[in-house]
Amino acid sequence: MPRIAGVNIPEDKRIEISLTYVYGIGLSSSKKILSEAKIDSNIRANKLSAAELNTLRGLIEGGYKVEGELRRDVQLSIKRLKDINCYRGIRHMRGLPVRGQQTRTNGRTIRGNVRRTMGSGKKPAASPT
Question: Looking at the domain assignment, is residue 88 inside a domain?
């Protein structure tokens, strides 16, 4: 498996799709990187030569924030919001949606499947004896 930015990218997929397995590279970034490196986007990842892999590594590690560095930056941004106690920081602290979504009925993604209504955790009625 080719290894780029510390991630094993899948061999059997097109290189355009395989690059998206790296955190911080989406489809449009992948297309841009491949056009800079002058590599065909339809070629499979296992068909790349060592020279082409090295150019991809150089372009990604030189010009893009990916993987650990990007994750660290995101966490630092969230920590800054929490430290200054802004609205978004408080929503992060409480585990609620940050971007203005309603929470009366939805919000299961951020909160998990926690039912906070009266009858949701109710024990079943005792059977008659």
Answer: yes
Q: Structure pTM?
A: 0.72
Task: Give the integer Cα–Cα distance in Å for 89 and 98.
Answer: 8
What range does the domain containing 89 cover? 69-111
Residue 65 φ/ψ, nearest 5 degrees = -85, 120
- pLDDT band at residue 118, thresholds of 50, 70 and 90? low
**42 and 21, same domain (yes or no):** yes
Q: Give per-residue pLDDT as tens, 91-112.
A: 999 988 999 888 877 777 777 7
**Roughly what angle, to the nearest 10 degrees, separates helices 67-83 and 87-94?**
110
